[in-house]
Design a protein that fits this description.
The chain has an eight-stranded parallel β-barrel with strand order 1-2-3-4-5-6-7-11, surrounded by six helices. The protein has an eight-stranded parallel barrel with strand order 19-20-21-22-23-24-25-31. The chain is α/β, with parallel strands linked by helices. The chain contains 21 helices and 31 strands.
């Protein structure tokens, strides 16, 4: 299995390589999901790719944010630069951009970011089909799920084995974006999950602390299981961590992989001392979610920041601890040039001859021992002699400086050869985007309960998204019903036994259940540009990302009907480890909230499949801005109902209907709603 280490800076990259990483993942100055790391310019990436390739280490570049319309061409060009530089892989989140990149740069390996939320075999198969050679699986998967995916796809699987865990499924978190304007999908998460909260039921405090702050993951004891599961790459989290952390953690895992031994107390102590939040957890992998995964009392580093001298040494510039084994042949025949041949483990070989020829020795001849001593002086190179063959005539001599010169030149030439890249293809490929003209703007509704659905039917809403259990309570002729599938696609948890002829999907794997159905794409697919819309143009409708401004929405080419959420409490997080259950309150009641430092209440709601969602404290409200919405080029304005009862649902529908169809603009009390991102661009 490959050991893949984080490198948020040149110092961390050096530490990773010298500590035994088989590969490193880095971010560029743009489009990286760790935008606050030091990161690398294109010039630096080119320089460090050579450094890594000389030492037999692969370089993966994270370009894994969602891409806005105005950035698409720049993004394609940026990936082209990475293709030319010779990076080993690019990590991507945006599906539409990935498809065009795969067509334009067919030799470039694409890795599906964990931000895509691959939590099922169906999603993995879809990602494989569209060109991803490796899939980074969701951190929430247990051993059996990882094994099932790894054994049933041709693409490689990559699994996080150490470091921070997001409370929300990666790629599905909008909390930082909606309450602070800093998007995790854009690489600038402000980590509101590490803040204190109060869990309240019916206004009463029942639990306080850092209720959304998990411990860091550590799978040092489960490496044999990961191997049995068929995992290809083991990933250490930490592009925002210091070089000493990278060195220490990489060093411990390198030792464990090479020795195939369980971690000792000293190994575990090194990991704890590098960084921990109240210890470690293997809860997701072992299927033991709950309070033991959480760091309720301390959301930040509890380590003593003690690093061994060896770990600190591996962070030093210019040090060469990781060595490449080489074979060397030296021939020194009488009255001939010295011949020096060096060959690496990949079959690269270089032959260099000395400028001067050997002579008959008048006093002290050169011996094999002298030559061996000189060729062994590889300390400032990344090479170590594994085998050697010295052929020498008796009684000859040559200046020691000649031996040293051919040794240095041969090592330099071998390094140059190892750094060379096969030229990767660039194919011309362009898409002629269609842009459907929208004449009639309509309202749709997304409901959670039967009484919300009844209110929408009574108010004349013609298109209603609802769970199957709600739809079954109504006459199918009362509206056009779209069956809402669960927010996360997980085999074994979700029941798709009854599939309707119109379904709304939230993950790519759910397409497998839609072969005969009309498909409606939920906002969870993170569609933010024309390429992403082009990818789903076989859908009946797509709900665009709520992280877009009206201006950005208008700029997107829309060959199919597009929809925006114009009312409702946006789901900010979706949990596998339910904060209610972890705190000891597992029931299906939707009367719980998380209360923050600003005394805002964020409702917690249970969803089909035993998922828990955290809703925004305030709903988006745009009925009084209906003219602005009408100019955005979308076909539908969606009203999302979550905590509303029949009366409130009916009231909201009436306000939007009057505004849209009758021009009656309502007034709403200040500080009871939000405009979302319609007028405020995210980072």
């Amino acid at each position: 299995m490959e050991l893949l280490s984080p490198a948020g800076s040149p110092e961390a990259l050096t530490a990773a390589v010298q500590s035994g990483a088989d590969a490193v993942y880095i971010g560029g100055s743009r489009f990286s999901a760790r935008g606050t790391a030091q990161n690398f310019t294109l010039e630096q990436i080119a320089e460090w790719v050579k450094y890594c390739h000389i030492r037999g280490v692969a370089v993966h570049v994270a370009a894994n944010t969602v891409i806005k319309e105005k950035e698409t061409e720049e993004y394609i060009e940026y990936i082209g630069e990475l293709n030319n530089i010779g990076v080993d892989a690019v990590i991507m989140q945006d599906i539409g951009m990935a498809k065009i990149v795969h067509l334009k740069y067919p030799d470039l390996s694409l890795h599906a970011s964990t931000q895509i939320t691959c939590a099922s075999l169906n999603t993995a198969l879809y990602l494989e089909k569209i060109g991803f050679s490796r899939i980074v699986l969701a951190r929430e998967l247990d051993y059996n799920s990882i094994k099932k995916i790894s054994e049933n796809i041709k693409s490689e699987t990559e699994v996080f084995i150490h470091g921070a865990i997001c409370m929300c499924y990666s790629g599905q978190c909008l909390m930082s974006s909606m309450i602070g304007g800093r998007s995790g999908n854009r690489g600038y998460c402000a980590q509101p999950c590490r803040l204190p909260y109060k869990l309240q039921k019916n206004g009463k405090n029942i639990k306080t602390g850092y209720l959304l702050s998990p411990k860091d993951m550590c799978l040092a004891k489960q490496l044999d299981l990961l191997d049995k599961a068929g995992v290809s790459s083991l990933k250490i989290e930490g592009r925002l961590k210091r070089p000493e952390y990278v060195s220490a953690v990489t060093g411990v895992y390198r030792k464990l992989l090479d020795s195939k031994m369980c971690p000792t107390k000293n190994d575990y102590d090194q990991l704890l001392n590098a960084f921990n939040r109240s210890g470690f957890t293997d809860g997701y992998f072992m299927g033991n979610v709950g309070k033991n995964m959480m760091s309720y009392n301390n959301p930040s580093n509890a380590a003593e920041n003690f690093f061994t001298e060896e770990a600190k040494k591996r962070c030093s510039a210019g040090i060469e601890i990781k060595k490449i084994p080489v074979s060397i042949i030296v021939k020194l025949l009488c009255c001939d040039n010295l011949i020096f041949c060096i060959k690496d483990e990949k079959g690269n070989s270089v032959t260099v001859t000395s400028e001067k020829k050997s002579e008959k020795a008048l006093l002290k001849p050169i011996t094999k021992e002298i030559i061996l001593r000189q060729i062994n002086k590889l300390g400032n190179t990344p090479y170590v002699i594994e085998k050697y063959d010295i052929q020498i005539d008796e009684g000859v001599t040559i200046p020691i400086s000649e031996i040293n010169a051919v040794r240095r030149k041969a090592c330099e030439m071998l390094s140059k050869k190892r750094a060379e890249q096969n030229k990767k293809r660039v194919c011309e490929f362009h898409i002629n985007f269609e842009d459907k003209i929208v004449k009639d703007l309509s309202l749709t509704a997304n409901v959670r309960t039967a009484e919300q659905a009844k209110a929408c039917v009574d108010m004349g809403i013609k298109i209603i998204y609802a769970p199957a259990l709600v739809i079954d309570n109504f006459n199918k002729k009362e509206a056009e019903w779209i069956c809402v599938l669960p927010p996360i696609d997980r085999e074994g948890k979700n029941n798709y036994s009854k599939i309707y002829d119109k379904i709304q999907i939230s993950s790519w794997g759910q397409l497998v259940f839609a072969s005969e159905a009309e498909i409606y794409g939920e906002f969870r697919l993170n569609v933010t540009n024309s390429y992403s819309v082009e990818n789903v143009k076989h859908f009946r409708c797509i709900t665009l990302s709520p992280e877009l401004t009206l201006k950005e929405i208008k700029s997107i080419k829309k060959p199919i009907d597009c929809e925006i959420i114009s009312y409702g409490r946006i789901p900010l997080m979706v949990y596998e480890n339910c904060p209610k259950k972890a705190a000891g309150f597992c029931d299906k009641e939707n009367s719980y909230v998380l209360n923050d430092r600003m005394n805002e209440n964020f409702p917690l709601m249970c969803r089909e499949g035993c998922y828990c969602e955290l809703l925004n404290s305030k709903p988006i409200y745009m009925a009084d801005k209906i003219h602005d919405l009408s100019d955005s080029g979308v076909r539908y304005l969606r009203l999302d109902f979550t905590v509303e009862d029949y009366k409130e649902t009916k009231k909201i529908v009436k306000e939007y209907s009057n505004a849209l169809y009758n021009g009656v603009i309502p007034n709403r009390k200040e500080n009871t709603f939000t405009r979302g991102h319609f007028y405020k661009e995210i980072n």
